[in-house]
Amino acid sequence: MKKQARFPKGWNEARVRRLLKHYEAQTDTEAVAQDEAAFSTTTHTAMKVPVKLVPEVRRLLARHEPANKRMQPPRRRAARV
Prior knowledge:
Blueprint: H1 13-25, H2 28-39, H3 54-63, H4 65-71
């Protein structure tokens, strides 16, 4: 019997297949351009952090609530009756 795959919330097998199809069809040039575009954004940054400091950096980021809220999708409010 085939084991049922578990997907994160909002994901399903069809979405995973579409994503795989996208990346498998990309040329090397397109992949590099996509990677470079991700690093050229002005709203986020990437940096090297020593492994020993990662837990502390995560704690600091968790305390920085406004940035965390901006990164999360808005919550839907229940309809009033």
